[in-house]
């Protein structure tokens, strides 16, 4: 009993001061649970002779010196242009790559897997995200909203390691939905839902597959009045309808764009929509090009999640020992059984071509000037883990013909833009908060190089990536 009461008082106090903490130059005082992963502390740190892929999409710059001072990037440039303070801690970046901290745009703090495994990740989630280089996340839907909110405050207060968290409301869906989701039977109910969670500290609204246009419109109107933004894993409402209802972001990309299903009925989610879309997505056709134009004209962003979707396609690289070893044994067993069933089923309804076409829609949106972000969505049958799945998302973007510079932009600066914090976060540029990822190798040589994270900087403090990730060994799917 005591704990929950304690939590309540702290929560009220913390909510009052949350946002300023977010953009302050210096992070919080770090507690023991955080200190154990710290390998680099300032106040002055210089990473020398490093290849910088800065997140803006600009060409990679070799031989850079990046100076961190008081939690912010003080200078970036060729060695001779950066004045080196005498008290700087020097890190030799020769042969290494520095990218911005990853901004995970579909990064739940709960995990689900085959076999019905489902867990709030108060321990493994924050360590895997930050350990893999994800320094900021949007939870994009929650099963345990106070679990997310309390963890956010633990992290902001320096009592738990982890990324900065942009809290999203629980899911808001419509009749036919349920489980841990709120079901809006009317626009009034949708408004009440938004009002409550706005007060509780949520800054984003998350819609799900059965929401009606009327309830979505009411929720968005209410949320915008309170400075909130809205995204959704939608189906009953098409992308074009959602844009016209003033949504801010669309999750998952073409895999949920029922605009491509000719037989779709108003306010109804077509049956087996993923299977239907596998056949009907045409990334270069009139529906796609006019929809992309319409989204961009209305400043609607999109956040792709290729790492969770590939788990449902045959013969994909989704059995990496790194991820499997972190799963709880029973979860690993259930996941492998599910994967083997997918890989061995004749006439499996989801095709390599369908996956490719969805990826091509992401690229077409990006090439047309759309703001494309990405995230892992650590759900489905459980093969996409927090952080590691964000890295896998990068690898798949390269498969989708994004250049390393473009893919880094998608996983970092674009996410910061969508969250409205790109003044302070998202790129390796002077003046920004020092959220950085040091990779042991040249990221341009192979997509999988993204897995070789050595040190993750958040607020200019450097964390041991491997130590943080290995701390979750055998616990994923438990806590
Ligand atoms: Zn999701």
How much helicity do the residues have?
25-40%
| Cα separation of the termini | 21 Å
CATH class of the domain at 103-119 and 171-416: Alpha Beta
Shape: globular
Class derived from helix and strand content:
alpha/beta
Bound chemical compounds = zinc ion
Contiguous low-pLDDT stretches (5 residues minimum) are 3-25
CATH topology of the domain at 103-119 and 171-416: TIM Barrel
- CATH architectural category of the domain at 103-119 and 171-416: Alpha-Beta Barrel
Gyration radius from CA atoms, angstroms: 21 Å
Average pLDDT works out at 94
- Compute the number of helices: 17
What share of the residues does DSSP label as strand, in percent? 15-25%
Quantity of strands, as a count: 21
Biggest β-sheet description: 9 strands, mixed
Give a verbal description of the structure:
With 479 residues, the chain is α/β, with parallel strands linked by helices. The chain has a domain at 103-119 and 171-416: TIM Barrel. Helix content is 36%, strand content 20%. It is built from 17 helices and 21 strands. The model is unreliable at 3-25 (pLDDT under 50). Bound molecules: zinc ion. Zinc ion binds next to loops.
